[in-house]
Amino acid sequence: MTSEDQPAAPAPNSLSNRYGGQKRALSRKVKRNILIAALAVGIAFLAWVSTSAAIGGVSYKDVGYSTPDATVTEIDFQVTKDPAAEAKCAVKAMDSKFAIVGWKVVDIGPNAADAGTDGGRTTAHRAQLRTESQAVSAVVDSCWITDAGQ
């Protein structure tokens, strides 16, 4: 047998040369710092969520609607906002093809502390809309705080 017939022995580090060496594990100090940073970000996020909901805006919830006749629709809804703030809510009535057949902007004034629930933050409202044809649904489109209420 000649040296040409014998298979060549693989280089001792051929796998590590091709795919890289073994990765080092993270040290305890690095793991601890990552954990502390993740906890700090989580706490900051929770603080932001809880304060942004309490500070700002207005939220609403559709409660129901009724259509006494083909030209009138009544919508019942709740508004949650700062009791001292003034808001406006756009309400709409729609027909069976989802076309808007009635639209109105409702003024929501400041609330007394004993009005509604949650210390005056959540109040119930009813709006009456004139419609062009029979409505099959009515919803609150949007609500916003007015400049006069800030």
Q: What's a quick, concise take on this entry?
A:
The protein has 150 residues and is an alpha+beta fold. It is built from 2 helices and 6 strands, in the order H-H-E-E-E-E-E-E. The chain has 2 domains: 25-55; 59-149, Immunoglobulin-like.
Q: Tell me the number of structural domains.
A: 2
Shape descriptor reads elongated
Q: What is the overall pLDDT average?
A: 83
Which H/E pattern describes the elements? HHEEEEEE
Residue stretches low in confidence (pLDDT < 50, at least 5 long) are: none
Strand % is: 35-45%
How would you write the strand order of the largest sheet? 1-2-5
User: Can you name the CATH architecture of the largest domain?
Assistant: Sandwich
CATH class of the largest domain: Mainly Beta
Radius of gyration (Å): 32 Å
Structural summary, described in words:
The structure is a single chain. By secondary structure, the chain is of the alpha+beta class. The chain folds into two domains: 31 residues; 91 residues, Immunoglobulins (Immunoglobulin-like, Sandwich). Helix content is 23%, strand content 37%. It starts with 13 loop residues before the first helix and ends in a 5-residue tail after the last strand. The model has no long low-confidence stretch (mean pLDDT 83). A hairpin with a 2-residue loop joins strand 1 and strand 2.
Primary descriptors:
single chain; 150 residues; alpha+beta; Immunoglobulin-like; 3-stranded antiparallel beta sheet; 6 strands; 23% helix
